[in-house]
Amino acid sequence: SGHSSTADDLKGLVVAPIVVEQDSRQDDPNFERDSGSWTQIVRPEHSGGLSVQIRFLRGVTKAREAQVLGLAEDSPKIVCIQFRFLNAKADSTIIRRLRILQKSSSASGSMIAPRKVVAPPEIEQLGPGQQTDCVVGVEFTSPSDRDGSLQVKFDIKFGSGAMPVDIRPSLGDLILPCKRSSSDFDTQMGRLHGFQRVESSIKAEWEGLAQLILEAAALTKIKGSPSDHLRFVGTLPASSDTVYVSVKQGSSAHKLVVCSDNALAANSLVNVLKRAIS
Questions:
Q1: Residue of 91, 100, 88, 82 whose CA lies nearest to 29
Q2: Which of 56, 73, 153, 204 counts the most CB atoms within 10 A of its CB?
Q3: What is the pLDDT of residues 25-38, one digit of tens each?
C-alpha cells in the first residue's frame, strides 16, 4: 500500500521520468542518429562489382567506436569512418579477401596526414548481394577547422583487385557537439558582426530542411525554436570556437546565417550546407 500512495503522489509528475528517459536514450550509441549522409567512394562498375560507401560518425557513437578501437574517445583529432561494402557483381560470384590498407601519405602543403589508423580485420568473403559494415578509426596529427584539410588514403583490396581511395572529411563532419540554451544562442549570435557573420539564401523545401542540415554537418539543434526558424550550434575542432547557424523561413528563399569568431570556418560551413541542400 506504501507503493500505491507513492504512485498517487507522483500522478502529477508523470512527465518528468519520460524526459529523463529520452535524455538517457540520447546517451546510447545509435549509428543512424550519429552519422552524416553516405558517400559512394567505389562504384561497382569501376571495381568489378564491389560497391563501397562511407559516412562519418559523431557524438556518443563515435566516442564508443573510438574507445573500442583503442583511440582517445574525446580527442578532436579522431575521425571514425563507417564503411559499407556490398557485393553487386552481376555474375553472382563471391568477393574474397576484402581488406582496407592504409597508403602512406606524408603531409603535403596544407594537408594534414594521419598519425595512426586502426582498420578492421580482413573480410574473408562477401556473397552475391551481401552487405557488411565496419568502422575505421583515424587519428590525425592535429585537428583542423579548415574544410577538407584532413586526408587519409587507402587501398581497398579484394581478390586480385585493388581500388585507391582518398578520403577528406568536410568541416561539417568534424564539428563537435555543443550545448547552448535558446537565450544564450540569441545573445551570442547577436554579438557577431562583419566578417564573423556570413549570410546567404537557400532554396529548399522547408519540410525536411533541418534533417538535410544535420546530415551535412554535425551540429546540435537548439530546442524551443519557432516553427519558421531553425537554430543550430557546434564547436570547431581545432580552435574550440562556437559556430552558430540560423535559417529563417522565407516565401521564395530561406535566409541562412552562419556566425563564428572564426570567419574562415563560417564561410566554409555556408559552402558545406549549400552544397548539401542545393
A1: 82
A2: 56
A3: 667 889 999 999 99
